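Exercise 7. Predict the structure of Calcium/calmodulin dependent protein kinase from Colletotrichum orchidophilum.
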Amino acid sequence: MIPGEFEYQQELQSSVALSPNLRTAIDTIPAFELLIYRFLAGDLLQISQKPLTETTRKLILKSALEGLVELHEKGIIHTDIEPNNILIDYKDTTTDDIVIQSVQVSDLEDAVLLPPGKNLKGCLCGNQFWRSPESWARARQNTPSDVFSFGVVAIYVMLNDMIFHVSPDELSDENVWRHILRRHISYFADETGFKGLLQHIGDDNPFFQRLIDLAGDFDADKPRKPFAMWHYVDVEFRDLIAKMTNLDPARRITAHGALEHPWFQHTDQQ
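Solution. The predicted structure, encoded as tokens:
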């Protein structure tokens, strides 16, 4: 760790240590600057591949979102929301489903406590398959960036669709951002949100023109595929995701607002 990081992590994690939905250190070894964590059985990337019921999937997402709400209420941005960083304790049953015992957002080592009115800037945060557009642009990032990533995770969990998982050739391209941000625009752009994103990153950012060029690449032969028009998907879920993945960070629903969305209100306890 860099000097002071161990103490910083202790202070940050102690502020949310009582949250049942956040994986915080339960012990430390100061001499080696080690944080000790409770073991959980698996992560959401793997567990989501089990034949879980819709109720179980929704319960996992709701529990993880409750953890994210608690982070954001403390002014903490996670910066790396992805299925690997949502850990789950569970019991197998005689059916294909599981009984959820605990859901915790993990990997708080990359989390940042932001003073009111301050943002991260210049950072390429998170994994490319779950990253927000403003993070790709290394523009101002704050709690809305986590919300965008969580919306993409929710699509993966409910639809088994990793929507930004591009081909190996595209992934190896030094301009991989071009292929992934094209999908951002295809699935989530509307005129107001797109203009808001451009305003957010500023015309001095190289991604300002890059995004404009990508948006101009769609035509009748290469049409956009707005998520809001995926009619095979539950209408309330589409509405929730549209609010979480608005390209304009200022127009995104908050984590708390998402938790209050009607789609989550229909969640039944196991």
